[in-house]
Amino acid sequence: MPRPVTPDTLERLKLVVGPAGFSVDPDEMAPLLVEWRNRFVGKTPLLLKPANVREVADIVRVCAAAEVGIVPQGGNTGLVGGQIPRPEGCDLLLSLGRMNRVRRVDPVDNTMLVEAGCTLAAAQEAAAAVDRLLPLSLAAEGSSQVGGNLSTNAGGIHVLRYGNARDAVLGIEVVTADGEIWDGLRALRKDNTGVDLKHLFIGAEGTLGIITAAVLKLFPRPREVQTLFAAVPDAERVLALLSLARDHAGDGIYAFEMISRFALELVTRHTPQTSDPLAAPSPWYVLADVTVPRAAAEALLAAAFEREIITDAVLAGSPVQARALWKLRESASEAQKHEGGSIKHDISVPVSRIPAFLAEALAAAERLIPGIRPVPFGHVGDGNLHFNFTQPLGMDKDAYLAKWEALNRVVHDIVVAHGGSISAEHGIGVLKREEARRYKSQVELELMARIKRALDPKGIMNPGKGVV
Predict the structure, then answer these.
(1) Considering just the CA atoms, what is the radius of gyration of the chain in Å?
(2) CB-based contact 445:403 (threshold 8 Å)
(3) In degrees rounded to 5, what are phi and psi of residue 401?
(4) Quick check: do 230-334 and 340-424 share a fold?
(5) 88, 164, 262, 457: which one has the fewest Cβ atoms less than 10 Å from its Cβ?
(6) How far apart are CA 424 and CA 352, in angstroms?
(7) What is the pLDDT of residue 36?
(8) How far is residue 310's CA from residue 306's CA, in Å, rounded to a whole number?
(9) What CATH number has the domain spanning 7-95?
(10) Are 157 and 257 in contact (CB under 8 A)?
């Protein structure tokens, strides 16, 4: 049972951060104690809002001495509960939002140094101000923070070309579980001097230490981006279009997303200022950005028509039209809320296995819950699907959500059978803790446990989250 926080510990923490660095206001804390889908609700005796890395280190030292749990939180956009304190009210919530500076942008080195509380959108804007690109891009980038993005190894729409959040990092600054500060803010492309420690903390969801700043890679901004939206009869031809796009654009495929018909219907039904861009419905759609001249994108679509890969398509004629097409994809998760209960999966399989996975998993879900309404969409170019389901028409919401674990088991067993992962980009948090332990080998689990014991022997860093 978690130990409660003593009044003496709370007073010591308040002295560390000063009056501006903490809150006990229920109204201020309330939105930080529930995750976006309202699935996880926590409690905390104190919200801490440090202004710099030294304050974070001092907080951790106090908590280590008292053996009190600390839950670091960025923009609270996570979907697996990793940023929410436990419901017993024994953990301190540490918000990094005040540590939000862009310290340096260097267009010569193609790097930027940002604090963990900087929103992803603000970091992107700072890069754009010097004509550079920070390629990490998510639907929640206006509120998600860099520290949270790195702690969960976020993915997003540009993984196909630039990789996950992990691939965007050259160096990080971390406060360890004993309150030491590791300054690993190196802007080096090559540094072969031992174990690359940053990768222990990236993707660890705050369970090994707290990321407080990072040096990120920047890239040249694409001079031309063509956005296309195409109707595709089946999943096999989605992959055929991806292959054809590679033939025509090489590494110029900037994003390649797959959207089901029902997902598009939900968006156009519930999201203002959206509409179906094509004349006739199709089982599947592809939304893609390619960094090629317009003539090359037109040639790609012409070849796809000729080979009967696509049945209709539109090529955006302006940035406004491109944003309207992307709104269709980015609104899919929000649109589901209007149709009742949702059971969601963030999975990945090898790209070549996507059609077989879809056929098997969709049929299995229908057998388990007749009338279930699938809403699959996602980053098909890198094998990551948001394999979501909306409750059947007429079914009670609570009765449907009671089948969450059963449906997870069916879907995840099929994912693993196809060589995939049950968490592609959202992490483990609380939601997938037991599921991950089911599918990880004993060797993996023990290695993770050894690392956790070595770096956080008192178990105070985001307790109860992650695999171990």
Answers:
(1) 23
(2) no
(3) -65, -20
(4) yes
(5) 457
(6) 16
(7) 83
(8) 9
(9) 3.30.43.10
(10) yes
Taking each helix axis as running N to C, give the angle between helix 354-368 and helix 235-249, from 0 to 180 degrees, rounded to the nearest 10: 150
Nearest to 106 by CA among 162, 224, 189: 189
CB 130 within 8 A of CB 108: no
The string of pLDDT tens digits covering residues 169-220 is: 999 999 999 999 999 999 999 999 999 999 999 999 999 999 999 999 999 9
**Contact partners, residue 71, CB within 8 Å, separation at least 6:** 42, 44, 83, 84, 85, 91, 92, 93, 94, 206, 462, 465
Confidence class for position 1, pLDDT limits 50, 70, 90? low
Structure tokens given for 298: 């037109």
Measured CA distances, 373 to 79, 159, 230, 260, 339 (Å)? 21, 28, 23, 11, 10
Give residue for tokens 């332990």.
437
Q: Where are the domains of the chain?
A: 7-95, 102-220, 230-334, 340-424
**CATH tag, 102-220:** 3.30.465.10
> Is 175 within 8 Å of 60 (Cβ atoms)?
yes
Instruction: Name 230's Cβ contacts closer than 8 Å, sequence gap at least 6.
Output: 241, 285, 286, 288, 301, 304, 310, 312, 313, 314
CATH 3.40.50.300 fits 340-424, yes or no: no
Instruction: Measure the CA dihedral 275/333/117/24, to 10°.
Output: 120
Q: Decide: helix, strand or coil at residue 321.
A: helix
Give how far the C-alpha of residue 204 lies from the chain's centroid of Cα atoms, to the nearest Å: 13
198 neighbors 169 (Cβ within 8 angstroms):
yes
In whole angstroms, give the CA distance from residue 46 to residue 23: 6
Distance CA 363, CA 186 (A): 49
Interval 387-402: pLDDT, tens: 999 999 999 999 999 9
Tens of pLDDT, residue by residue over 3-53, are 789 999 999 999 999 999 999 999 999 999 999 888 899 999 999 999 999
Q: CATH for 230-334?
A: 3.30.70.2190
